[in-house]
Amino acid sequence: MNLELTPALDAPALLAPPVHTALQTLPDAGRIQVAPIDPGLADTAAFCEAYDVTLEQSANCVIVVGKPAGIFAACVVLATTRADVNGAVRRLLGTRKVSFAPMDDAVGLSGMEYGGITPIGLPADWPVYIDARVRSVDAAVIGSGIRGSKIVLPGAVLASIPGATVVDGLAL
């Protein structure tokens, strides 16, 4: 991993405001680090290649919406997998249909940048589902709420954030 890591609590400029606020109350916040990156390389494949991070270390957070109820949720899966939106996620939300949230809704409601959305600091009424495989990653890399940095933390810490539910089979 080729990242210049700093304790996340010491680098508010590298975090979206809701992420920084949420970190203030996380019991394991001291185990969370952040690194600046080129915002043009924030997308997973380009990021992993440029910063020597494996896809097995990289986690993606996707925002979905269940219809017709309009329930927003976050799904965190490893970059080697994809969220089972039409199966596991639909069942978890208890809705007839689930789709990826429109970009404007995901950005506007989360207070985070598209391509940098992270489960830390999302609205409290949004369920956060984390694929069980993420929990076992020693140093998981995920968005920081902005495209210009990434958060690095143990998968077990990510799985323990408030409101998170670890789900076997969330991803395919």
Describe, in short, the structure shown.
This protein has 172 residues and is an alpha+beta fold.
Topology of this structure?
Elements: E1 6-7, H1 17-23, E2 33-36, H2 44-51, E3 59-67, E4 71-78, H3 85-93, E5 97-100, H4 103-110, E6 128-131, H5 132-135, E7 140-143, E8 149-153, H6 155-159, E9 164-167
Parallel strand pairs: 4-6, 6-9
Antiparallel strand pairs: 1-2, 2-8, 3-4, 3-5, 7-8
In words, what does this structure look like?
By secondary structure, the chain is α+β, with helices and mostly antiparallel strands. It is built from six helices and nine strands. The protein has helices spanning 17-23, 44-51, 85-93, 103-110, 132-135, 155-159; strands at residues 6-7, 33-36, 59-67, 71-78, 97-100, 128-131, 140-143, 149-153, 164-167. The strands form two sheets. A five-stranded mixed sheet has the order 5-3-4-6-9. The chain starts with 5 loop residues before the first strand and ends in a 5-residue tail after the last strand.
